[in-house]
Amino acid sequence: MQMSAPHVESILRVRDLVKHFPVAGSRQVVHAVNGVSLEVYRGETVALVGESGSGKTTVGRCVAGLLRATSGIVIFRDVEVNAPSKLDYRYMRGKIQLVFQEPGESLDPKMRIEDSIAEPLRAARWPGERRAARVLEVTELVGLQVKVLRQYPWELSAGQQQKVAIARAIATNPELVVLDEPTSALDPTARAEIIELLRTIQEKLGTAYLFISHDLSTVRYISHRVAVMYLGMIVEHGSTTEIFRRPTHPYTIGLLSSVMLPDPRQTLRRGLQLKGEIPSPISLPQGCYLASRCPLADGRCRLELPPAVDVGRGHFVHCFKHDETRQFQFVAETGGALPASASQSVQPSP
Amino acid sequence: MSDVRLRVENLHSYYFAHYGTVRALRGVDLTLEAGSVLGVVGESGSGKTTLARSIMGLLPPPGRIVDGRILFGGRDLRTLTPQEWQALRGRDIAMIVPNPRGELDPLLPVGEQLVAVIRAHTDKGHREARDLALGMLRAVQIPDPERRFRAYPHELSGGMAQRVVIAIALSCSPHIVISDDATSGLDVTVQAQILSLLDDLVRQQASSMIFITRDLGVVAHVSDRVAIMYAGEIVEMAKTTEFFDHPAHPYSMMLLSAFTHDHALRARWTKEGDSPDLVRLPQGCPYASRCVRAQPRCQAERVPAVEVAPGHFVRCLYPL
Amino acid sequence: MTIFQYVARRLAFIVPQLLGIVAVSFFLVSLIPGDPAVLMLGPLASQDSIAKLHASLGLNQPLAIRFLHYVWRLLHGDLGTSWQTQRPVLLDLLQRAPATIELVTYSLLVAIAVGIPLGVYTAVRTQGIPSKIATMYGSVAGTIPDFWLGLVFIFIFYNRLHAVPAPTGRLDLAIPPPPTITGFYTIDGLLTGDWTALGSALAHLALPALTLGLINAGPIFAMTRSTVSRMLDSNFAAYAQLSGLPRSLIIMRAFRNAFPSIVTVISVLYGFLIGGAVLIEFVFSWGGAGQYAVQGVLNADIDPVLGFVLFSAIFSLVIYLAVDLIYFALDPRVRR
User: Measured between alpha carbons, how far is C133 from C129 in angstroms, rounded to an integer?
Assistant: First the structure.
């Protein structure tokens, strides 16, 4: 199920991205992102994986230019996303698009679907007649019927709304779409459909995705490369095959161990069990951020922040104990196997 | 034959709304054996929460149990007086609720809320109840329980609040714990911890549990038997291993197929269609409109439950 | 956050708030028709003497300058002089404000004593005849004019039953006021052991306080009923019921959670009644601050009006500060 990255031309570079948010009524700050570097190549999908509080959404918003980074640089093509000139900004707006988790919230309830889809085109100053043609084109591309164009968001199902959001995002032919948990608000059937659609669009248009998700099973299916985030840092990154075959950071292993598959023979306590919960991003712990939850942590882990270690094949891990995690490694299953009867004929025998 | 803690027979619960009668539960039969966990799986609107509320005797109006029996401890719970109900809830049958931060009183320290439940069901004094409460907070592995005892709900993370609610539910060693979607809002690493904890505690106390969820993956790990609900009926019920090895209802297969990466296989068992309107239910099988196996007979006849293997029941005319 | 930080932060806002209120009311009051000089000198005064008086009152200066003068005097504790009473406004207010505050406070106590129990009762028992009657009372209470009810009460309790003294102020004419400590006759009477004055003051308070209380119980009743019933329908009450907690405890918790909203409506009423009780003050010849201000408005006597506005503003701000402290004590979510 693995796809190879089709191109090697880099379109997005993020270096040492830091984003702090002030805490209301206090001098403290929330350390949402603490030094993230990543690169996205043309036409590939990079997944940012993490649980709530990992900072993955904040990275996505900084990349899309919705938030201004506290420090660090985000370069899209040759444009500094954090400080674009007016001209660059307009260029960028067409070239990076964003899809949110809640499709219902990102669509204006008082706007017809066609106007919602045309909005980014208008912002990118497409002339009227080309706009209408393009709206039709992308509507077909995402597999929606033309009649929905005259409807309003509330008349559509959540899955259809998310298709509209995707149509809107790809209307301007962007090179990069930031997808922020695009499927987690949907039920399983609609989720599968949206993921399939995103893959088809990438094949047809060569759009790169920054895919933000907590759902490892989806990530494995759709992405070429994976970066695992914890408390505002990337703790492990590498190709999807590598990460799922050789998960090395204790957090990644813990995350994979927590995936519940419909297989009663898999025990609850396999792999590696993380203790406790994510620490507060207001006062960051000293040393490795995972130390308080990690069964392998020792004195050094609690004092020093582990640097990136290359464990081969472009696979990097921020962990002093990366040699010892092998005992917990397992070949992660993220998709369920169906019973044999699933392959038999759907139609009942007479 | 292991002894039965709870037996639900032919339970019908309806909501008498102004636009019509919502038939949320239509003839549910189930048994819960001592020390076992029954997983109840269904999408929203399948009636799983109505089932929990019916067993707890707290259907929100305009809901009402219209038929059936709920047998517990040699009595039909439907005949209890309000006073008997109050004594029973939390002591004999306890419930774990989802989104616990919204379910706790925002103005009271969580420890005091735990103490209040203990004191309502035992004759312990405040000091004794407090000791037991602290012990419960420790048992659900809350770090620094003395400090957390004094914390207010908004000061706890979702995972911590969930542990508090589990502590409340288990504080009086109930015979039956009903967990309604208890881990749905949590991060996966925390969910795994909570499930292990719940599993341990329930088995330690030899309680029985009804574990309600929409996630088949979770059910595979915690339950001894699985019941699949659709449109107010249990459409399939079996031992957990039997269910996952030989799912018999097309709906069960559709739910399972959502987990696979095999797109073609998934598409095979999935058909777009409307969920049934519980006010105007079709005459035949309610799943027929979404069923890939549906035949003309399915639309026409009411479907009885059949036993396809020992202890494996399915409500389908053409089981797999 | 400690309670001191919290209070300090609230106090820091009071000064700009007061300045804003003074500014707005100054310019609004300047729109009141009527020339104080003409009213003071009478219809026969010459143009010349009117112009002279204008100059001495500073009325010939631009509005902005007059405002600055007013603020300057305020900063020195000078609220100006009433031409009607020929006394400093500050002294007039110090004498009359306790009358109004006393009346309003007792009225509110009546309103609370009626509104809250009725509200809780109807929230808990939504069905039944007592509940229906209470609901009817709640909807009627808000619509009856207070002065009308006051007159009806005077007719019944004074004219017919002779149960209360004549509606002629705060005390019987023959009884001297108790020695002034706070200006509240009931408190001063109690403190100095002047039982005759205390008895007379209470007897005179009874009817006006009952009138205002019964009418203003309306909003308190409505707020109590709606918030308590909302709390009884809320998740935590449902959860408490699921845990088998007794009904009485659940009602108590619902009330505690509803209490901040009830306190809010009481505080708003308190601030409002300082000026809003004026018709009752007239009906019972109360001689309070509201009556004083209305006389000022009718006679283009500007300083008493401004003084009264300032007084009620400060009073309201103090009440709101007290309410915030109550929130702070009650609701842990505020303490952040």
Answer: 6
C311 CA to centre of own chain: 11
**pLDDT tens track for B161-179:** 999 999 999 999 999 999 9
C-alpha B55/C-alpha B5 separation (Å) is 13
Query: What's CA A347's distance to the chain center, in Å?
Result: 38
Q: Enter the CATH code of domain C90-335.
A: 1.10.3720.10
CA distances from C245 to B80, B172, B317, C284 (A): 16, 13, 46, 50
Contact at CB, B221 and A276, closer than 8 angstroms: no
Q: Mean pLDDT throughout A31-41?
A: 94
Specify the pairing of strand A10-22 against strand B75-76: unpaired
3-class DSSP assignment, residue B286: coil
User: Sign of torsion, CA B251 B256 B259 B263?
Assistant: negative
Residue C39 has pLDDT above 80, yes or no: no
CB distance C245–B91 less than 8 Å?
no
Q: Which of B172-181, B235-244, C67-76 has the lowest mean pLDDT?
A: C67-76
C195-232 helix and C146-153 helix, angle to the nearest 10 degrees: 130
Q: Kindly state the DSSP code that residue B58 receives in the 8-state scheme.
A: -
Cβ of residue A153 closer than 8 Å to a chain B Cβ: no
Residue of B nearest to C256 (CA): B107
Determine whether A100 is exposed, middle or buried from the number of CB atoms within 10 Å of its CB (0-12, 13-18, 19+).
buried
Q: What's the pLDDT at A80?
A: 82
Cβ under 8 Å to B: A residues 188-207: 188-189, 191-192, 196
Cα gap A176→A206, rounded to integer Å: 9
Stated pTM of the model: 0.83
* Interface contact flag, B187 A217, Cβ < 8 Å: no
Residue C83 phi/psi, 5-degree rounding, is: -75, -15
Q: Say whether C147 sits in a helix, a strand or coil.
A: helix
Q: Cβ of C243 and B155 within 8 Å? A: no
Assembly ipTM:
0.88
- Which residues in chain A have their CB less than 8 angstroms from residue B285's CB? none
Read off φ and ψ for residue B99, nearest 5 degrees.
Answer: 50, 55
Q: How far is B52 from chain A (nearest CA, A)?
A: 22
pLDDT at A268: 61
Contact of A117 with A87, CB cutoff 8 Å = no
Positive/negative CA dihedral, A257, A261, A267, A268: positive
Q: For residues B67 and B135, what is the distance between their CA atoms, to the nearest angstrom?
A: 41
3-state secondary structure chain A: CCCCCCCCCEEEEEEEEEEEEECCCCCCEEEEEEEEEEEEECCCEEEEECCCCCCHHHHHHHHCCCCCCCEEEEEECCEECCCCCHHHHHHHHHHEEEECCCHHHHCCCCCCHHHHHHHHHHHCCCCHHHHHHHHHHHHHHCCCCHHHHHCCHHHCCHHHHHHHHHHHHHCCCCCEEEEECCCCCCCHHHHHHHHHHHHHHHHHHCCEEEEEECCHHHHHHHCCEEEEEECCEEEEEEEHHHHHHCCCCHHHHHHHHCCCCCCCCCCCCCCCCCCCCCCCCCCCCCCCCCHHHCCCCCHHHHHCCCCCEECCCCCEECCCCCCHHHHHCCCCCCCCCCCHHHHCCCCCCC
- Return the residue matching tokens 């991205």: A17
Q: What residue segments make up the domains of chain C, in order of their start?
A: 36-78, 90-335
> For A158-213, how does the pLDDT look when each residue is reduced to its tens digit (9 = 90+)?
889 999 999 999 999 999 999 999 988 787 777 888 998 999 999 999 999 999 99
Residues of C in contact with B177 (CB under 8 A): none
Helix (H) or strand (E) holding C166: none
CA distance A34 to A56: 11
Distance CA C290, CA A140 (A): 72
Taking CA–CA distances from A52, the nearest residue in chain B reads B187
